[in-house]
TrEMBL record:
This is Transposase IS4-like domain-containing protein. Pfam families: DDE_Tnp_1 (PF01609). Residues 39-217 form the Transposase IS4-like domain. InterPro entries: RNaseH-like_sf, Transposase_11. The lineage of its organism: Bacteria, Thermotogati, Deinococcota, Deinococci, Deinococcales.
Amino acid sequence: MTWIDPVTHQPIPLSITQTPAAVPDGETRVDFYATVTLNTITQLPDTLRSQLQAIVADAYYTKLKFVSRVVDEGQLPFVGKMRRDANLKHLFTGPRTGKPGRPRLYDGKVSLRDFTRWEALPWADECMVYTVVAYSVSLKRPVRVVAVVRPGAGWPRVEVLFSTSTTMTAATIIRLYRARFSMEFPFRDGKQFAGLSECQSRQLESLHFHWNMALLAVSAARLSQLQDQRACPLVFSMEDEKRRAYNEFFVGRILSILAVEPPDENCWKLIDEVLTLGVKAA
């Protein structure tokens, strides 16, 4: 699970847990993922917990078992992606007839090809954005649905996003879902520079410790660059951070061997240039 700033798209991994080979009878992997998500949210400090806007996940997690638990127990809206043939129904908003019986709840099936009953929104990209509040049959709840339609050969390409918060705007849903992809970058940096995939232990506790320490190293390097703010907006490079740390160690080693007096201000300026030697985003 990863915390992501929706403005800067800076990801900070919160925890990494191995999917078990077998789950208890009556449960599925989706139940396990929901439990891990809720446990992670519960363990967050109150200051960080209060900053959470939503739980965002890809289309795999758009399942009743996952969404209902994280929304009802986690007390946070869920933003995700639906299939292009999702079973949705328009909500009936007309007047009641006054006749006996159950009031009418729905007003036909939602079409993902005909958007005449949707609200069209202006968008800067080369696409059209439509939104509607509809009832999701699979999730058993009303949701805010956003259809991003891009022109293409034959039928237009439609991406269907949604939020369990019906008051969330379409722009917020798109912005949060786009930020989700940033969670992949710590895994890339962890594998390339922090040995994330190089643990040879077969013990569950050792693997758990190794993976979390590898991602912690990536987060510490990102925090260092955020504090220094060497580039604005920040362009994080784990390779640059490792090179800068090596240069600092190398300079310190040379100065310790020479046993010279502490460098003066002019000398430190030259040392700063050495520390950024070979750094690409300096």
